[in-house]
Amino acid sequence: MNVGIIGYGNMGSSFAKGLKERASNIVVFDINQEKLKKALEEGFGTAKDLSFLVKSSDLIMLAVKPKDAKAVLESLRDLLGGRVLLSIVAGLSISNIESIIGKKKIIRAMPNINVAVQKGVIAYTHNDVVSDQDKEEFLRVFSACGSLYHIAEDLMDAFTALAGSGPAFVFKFISALITAGIREGFPYEVSRGIAIDTVLGSCELLKALGGHPEEWITRVASPGGTTVEGLKVLEDRAFSGIVIECVEKTREKAKRLS
Question: Rg of the chain over CA atoms, in angstroms?
């Protein structure tokens, strides 16, 4: 698959690097010449205009700011033909895209920041013009950037709250662990390493061995032991409820913005 990327910002550049091993060819277009120069330096082809980019691509990724999306889509309307358009523009629904470019092959995806290290969580949905073959090729190539989840479009706001904003919530938790470690006497770098490795290892364990997180909590927390004391503080402060409300409020905000 030849991939054209419109917009070489944080997400566009992260996807380009992740797709490098799977895509046959990657071409980038951006109105910012400095970003095009950066793309060239990082080993990607660049296009002087959208027409060249589309002709060179099987799938075109729209990775621009929401305020710029309409103008770019209008420019693409008569160029796409039977090619797949993949939009990662926040809040832009498939029906909105179709109202601008017509009934074309459209995939809508919502990635999170972890695409930067090929560990992204990416939700996607598509219209009925996208064929099974288009979908299979999309999954084959884009799975290089992380885990892909096919969801109903009306769950995109919930996904944004859970996975799109989720890294910030995880970073906040890790930051608190680091601070706690420093308070207990560890140097910053040591505390940081311990906190990150603890979170990483716990996630790998849960992913590899399965089971509900609460089951693993009971294995760590011995009756009358040290862990129970810490868990009691979390329960007294309604830790689970805070996280649930955090996601709920984020989803509500995402819905208002979209």
Answer: 21
- In terms of Cα–Cα distance, which of 101, 88, 98 is closest to 8? 88
Evaluate whether 60 touches 84 at the Cβ level (below 8 Å).
Answer: yes
Q: HEC states along 44-111?
A: CEECCCHHHHHHCCCEEEECCCHHHHHHHHHHHCCCCCCCEEEECCCCCCHHHHHHHHCCCEEEEEEC
Eight-state DSSP code of residue 225: S
Sheet holding 84-87, edge to edge: 45-46, 25-29, 2-6, 59-62, 84-87, 105-110, 120-126, 146-150
- Which amino acid makes up residue 119? K
User: What does pTM read for this prediction?
Assistant: 0.91
> What is the spatial distance between Cα 137 and Cα 156, in angstroms, rounded to a whole number?
22
Query: Which stretches within 106-222 are classed as H helix?
Result: 132-142, 156-159, 166-183, 188-209, 213-220
Using CA atoms, how far apart are residues 30 and 84, in angstroms rounded to an integer? 19
Contact at 8 Å (CB) between 194 and 181?
A: yes
Strand partners, 45: 27
Mean pLDDT by groups of 10 residues along the chain of 258 residues: 96 95 94 95 94 96 95 95 95 95 97 95 97 96 97 96 96 98 98 98 97 96 95 96 96 88
**38 with 92: CB under 8 angstroms?**
no
